[in-house]
Amino acid sequence: MLADRLRDEASPVVLGIARGGVLVAAPVAHALRAPLDVCVVRKVGHPSQPELAMGAVSAAGDVVLTEHARDVASDKLDELIAGARARADALEFELRGGRAPIHLAGRTAILVDDGIATSATMLCALETARNRGAVRVVCAVPVAPGDFLERLRAKCDRLVVLVPAREWHFAVGRYYADFREVSDQEVRAALAAEPEPS
Q1: Which residues touch 120 (CB under 8 Å, ≥6 apart)?
Q2: Does a cis peptide bond (omega within 30 degrees of 0) precede residue 19?
């Protein structure tokens, strides 16, 4: 369904946000006959509530912070960002297995995730794609909370959300029949699959 909404995008590269986003991105890339790559972004958790994202950092070093970072001392914030960056670097190395990133210069980057919870991860991924030279960035997800859509729309050239959720207690997993944890091996297998000719 995402691919059907994206068929008019010219010269796309599909980037799945690791880990779960890669498994959603793989059939999109296949349907569009586009190359598939991975975008590794790690959450920066709040020191008093680690599950609360106060930002995100990519393996490339791009950082996006949310309003939850305002009450954190700058030295502590720097420490948490550095830790998340190290985790992102390690995961990217593990998933790529020596494979170089696909060049985005002059192309459309379609960023795909399994869903959006706080928007920090996707906002960071969009910034990373722009910094890698993409001339157009598209955010494409199956589900996202309605109150984040304007924030996302302002940071990308196109936003595709199949189900804009209006729930107060939003959770991405509620929209999936199978929302088990995705393994590194599954991501590597998806990335290693030969894309169809573009």
Answers
A1: 43, 44, 53, 54, 55, 56, 64, 65, 66
A2: yes
Q: At what angle do helices 184-192 and 74-96 cross, to 10 degrees?
A: 50
Closest by alpha carbon to 38, among 85, 97, 87, 81?
A: 97
Residues 145, 165: Cα–Cα separation, whole Å: 5
Distance CA 6, CA 185 (A): 28
pLDDT, tens digit (0-9, with 9 covering 90-100), for 30-42: 999 999 999 999 9
Domains and CATH numbers, the chain: 2-41+101-192 (3.40.50.2020), 43-95 (3.30.1310)
Position 166 scores a pLDDT of 72
Q: Which H or E element spans position 53? A: strand 49-58
How many CA atoms, within 13 angstroms, populate the side-chain half-sphere of residue 48? 5
Q: What is the pLDDT of residues 46-82, one digit of tens each?
A: 999 888 889 999 999 999 998 889 999 999 999 999 9
CA distance 160 to 140: 5
DSSP run (H or E) holding 58: strand 49-58
| DSSP code string of 123-171 | HHHHHHHHHTT-SEEEEEEEEEEGGGHHHHHTTSSEEEEEEEE--SS--
Could you tell me which residues are beta bridge partners of residue 43?
56
Phi first, then psi: give them for residue 112, nearest 5 degrees.
-120, 130
